[in-house]
Design goal:
Elements (H helix, E strand, L loop, with lengths): L2 H25 L7 H17 L22 E4 L9 E2 L2 H15 L6 E7 L2 E8 L2 E7 L5 E4 L1 H4 L16 E9 L2 H14 L7 H9 L4 H5 L4 E11 L7 H10 L9 E3 L2 H14 L7 E8 L2 H7 L1 E2 L2 E2 L2 E5 L3 E14 L4 E13 L2 E7 L3 H6 L7 E6 L6 E5 L24 E2 L7 E3 L5 H12 L11 H9 L14 H6 L5 H13 L5 H7 L7 H10 L3 H5 L3 H5 L6 H12 L1 H13 L20 E5 L7 H10 L3 E3 L8 E4 L5 H9 L2 E3 L1 H7 L4
Parallel strand pairs: 2-13, 21-22, 21-23, 23-24
Antiparallel strand pairs: 1-6, 3-9, 3-10, 4-5, 4-7, 7-8, 10-13, 11-12, 14-15, 14-17, 15-16, 15-20, 17-18, 19-20
Helix pairs in contact: 1-2, 16-17
The structure holds 2-(butylsulfanyl)adenosine (IVH).
Length: 670
């Protein structure tokens, strides 16, 4: 046998063996060989592929990692939108869903499947001719970000599937970071002075949105697949349960706890069991998803807006623990707000060690009668920041101390005030250095301009050294500046400057958010980009014009105008412009192009021409959202005959109320 022929057979053999053992290890959690044996075979395959590059295939286990970093993620469009789930918060809610489903199906003779609701990041994986083709995030449900290179680094996701698989199909699942991996990652970040991830879900999402796949590869991410998006070319099973077994047989990792149930009582029994034991699971789950098993029935039940009627997420109750409140510290936010937070004796709650909890404001602390030195009940629900429920009064010793907000800013020692009608105390010094530093940290943060590698410590150091006084200064940093800082080598300096350079291309919405305009959160920032396509357009808008935008009230409008009036902010924008930061909207932002994008509708009363679900579906199809309750975020309330209390509430909140004919015009139905 000649060398090439031998190499060909050997690489095929090694690939098959390595895929098999990786599957045993990462999917089934039941390895058959030692790590050393695996590494030895892997090294042999790598050597052979280096020697005979023509034998390398994209699905080879050696090809998971190694793709070059990208400038930005591409967009993947979904043929079948990725839906979300309605929530149930109690057994009663679950029972109500069950009864509704019985009513809609006209029978209670349906089966259901119960699954843990994994707290991670939704992904859709397409396979074409047996090979992993794309992996994408959920995005807005219609289009997601193409994160294929990162998805490939997750060892429990097969790069290739057997010949029995359909020629084209899409699998959906949740990528997550196991609790243990999360703790290790955060430990490492403490050592590196980087901002900590608040919870495993954020950590998973942050890891998957890395432009450099080698960063993703270094994080121990995993997946549970939970359904099939679509499949072409081969018939697929008729029930969800069978789909899951079938996906498992194709090599996908499914959750072993999935249970098929026949009655509400059975499902509730599974729920009770999982409520009791989920804290011991090695991953975060925030509830149980119940799904109607028959795909035909799923289809018949359909969806309202983005929420399928055939499934419901039954949330797990919050988990609590007790610990000692050692002291209350106060940090200064970027808008000058004084934010008290509790330093706790570290305690493990729901598998995560908690040593701090948010305390909101002084009023809240007094209302709950929380005192320094108290033993307190700490609670965390799913992904939210831990909070203090209250003191354990029976354990009071009399030594506890009532907390008072400092009279002077803990950072700049200027006077502290509490504006009328606000819960928060504020520092009165517009030039308070703590605020300036927080504004820089906000600008570089993941949800804003996402300057990877710019951790809190680096921001602190640059600020303290006087090199960066505001976000605009980031763009004039040089390698020499950075290398003046302790421990910063040339390579790290170059990486940071690259990351600063990449941030110039961020979409406008991120910049609007990153500027830190008071009251302008992520959603409002996105909304503003749909009305103002450049920073100059936003900066010259009047308060009246801004307040005319549905869901933007006078308070936000004033705050935006005040922001652009300040010389300090004008200077930052001048520096950003000079550095070439994108200050205009590119034409193809993900939500744009659909007539109702950014708008939220609530329906009330009887409509002549549509059923409620039809009207809601029309809104969603045109890029809008349909909500059930009236809140300040709602853009329009569509009132039919005999409108209910929702119309009254809308009037009170100043939300625009339109009739059916106006609505028909908006959706182009006339
Ligand atoms: S089913 C209707 N099953 O929860 C189809 N989702 O709140 C929706 N999730 O976006 C998905 N575990 O990312 C389904 N076993 C599970 C899930 C699950 C976690 C996530 C998923 C979805 C979100 C909806």
């Amino acid at each position: 046998m000649n060398d090439l022929k031998y190499a060909q057979e050997r690489t095929e053999y090694l690939r098959k063996a390595l895929n098999h053992h990786a599957y045993r290890y990462h999917v089934l959690d039941s390895p058959e060989i030692s790590d050393e044996e695996y590494d030895r075979m892997f090294a042999e395959l790598k050597t052979l592929e280096q020697e005979y590059p023509q034998l390398t295939t994209p699905a080879s286990p050696t090809q998971r990692i190694g793709a070059a970093p990208v400038e930005a993620f591409g967009v993947v469009e979904y043929a079948v939108p990725l839906l979300s789930l309605a929530n149930a918060f109690s057994r009663d809610d679950m029972a109500a869903w069950w009864r509704r489903t019985c009513g809609l199906l006209g029978s209670d003779g349906f089966e259901t499947v119960c699954e843990p609701k994994i707290d991670g990041l939704a992904v859709a994986l397409t396979y074409i001719d047996g090979l992993l083709f794309t992996g994408a995030t959920r995005g807005d449900g219609y289009r997601g970000e193409d994160i294929t290179q990162n998805v490939r680094t997750i060892r429990s996701i097969p790069l290739s599937v057997s010949r029995e698989a359909p020629p084209r199909f899409e699998v959906r699942g949740e990528v997550y970071l196991p609790k243990m991996g999360f703790e290790k990652l955060n430990q490492r970040r403490v050592e590196e002075g980087l901002a900590l991830f608040a919870n495993p879900r954020n950590a998973a999402a942050g890891s998957m949105r890395q432009l450099d796949p080698s960063v993703t590869a270094a994080r121990p991410l995993d997946i549970f697949v939970y359904g099939l998006g679509w499949a072409e070319g081969t018939p697929v099973p008729e029930t969800h349960w069978e789909v899951m077994q079938w996906l498992k047989s194709l090599g996908f990792k499914t959750n072993p706890l999935i249970t098929r149930t026949r009655t509400l009582e059975e499902a509730q029994h599974v729920y009770d069991l999982w409520v009791a034991e989920h804290e011991k699971w090695p991953y975060e789950a925030d509830g149980m998803v119940v799904k109607v098993d028959s795909l035909l029935m799923q289809n018949e039940l359909g969806a309202i807006g983005r929420e399928p009627r055939w499934a419901i997420a039954c949330k797990f109750p919050a988990v609590q623990g007790t610990t000692k409140l050692q002291k209350i510290e106060v940090s200064v936010g970027r808008t000058g707000s004084l934010n008290p937070y509790a330093i706790l004796t570290p305690v493990r709650i729901g598998g995560i060690v908690i040593s701090q909890a948010a305390l909101h404001n002084e009023e809240d602390i007094h209302r709950k009668d929380i005192r320094i030195g108290d033993t307190v009940i700490v609670q965390r629900a799913g992904d939210v920041i831990p909070e203090i429920v209250g003191p354990v009064l029976s354990l009071r010793t009399g030594e506890e101390q009532v907390f008072h907000m400092p009279l002077l800013c803990p950072e700049c020692h200027f006077e502290v005030i509490k504006p009328d009608g606000e819960a928060q105390h504020r520092c009165t010094n517009a030039a308070c250095p703590a605020q300036a530093l927080e504004r820089i940290k906000h600008y570089v943060s993941r949800d804003a301009m996402d300057l990877e590698g710019m951790g809190e410590k680096l921001c602190d150091a640059l600020f303290k050294a006087g090199m960066v006084k505001d976000a605009g200064d980031l763009y004039s940093l040089t390698p020499a500046d950075l290398m003046l800082l302790n421990h910063m080598g040339e390579k790290s300096a170059t990486n940071i400057l690259d990351s600063i350079g990449r941030s110039k291309q961020r979409p406008l919405g991120r910049l609007f958010f990153g500027l830190g305009i008071t009251h302008v959160g992520q959603e409002y920032a996105e909304l503003l980009t749909r009305h103002y396509r450049s920073i100059d357009a936003l900066g010259t808008a009047s308060a009246e014009e801004l307040a005319a935008i549905p869901s933007i009230g006078p308070r936000i409008a004033e705050s935006i105008v005040a922001f652009f009036r300040q010389q300090r902010n004008r200077d930052i924008i001048r520096k950003l412009r000079a550095a070439g930061v994108t200050l205009e909207s590119s034409t193809d932002a993900s939500h744009e192009g659909r007539p109702l994008s950014g708008l939220i509708f609530v329906f009330t009363g009887h409509l002549e021409g549509f059923t409620r679900p039809e009207a809601e579906a029309r809104v969603v199809r045109l890029g809008g959202k349909a909500a059930q309750d009236v809140s300040r975020k709602v853009s329009y309330v569509v009132a039919g005959d005999e409108p209910g209390s929702k119309a009254a509430k809308a009037a009170k909140l100043g939300i625009k109320i339109v009739g059916e004919s106006e609505f028909r015009q908006m959706i182009g139905a006339d």
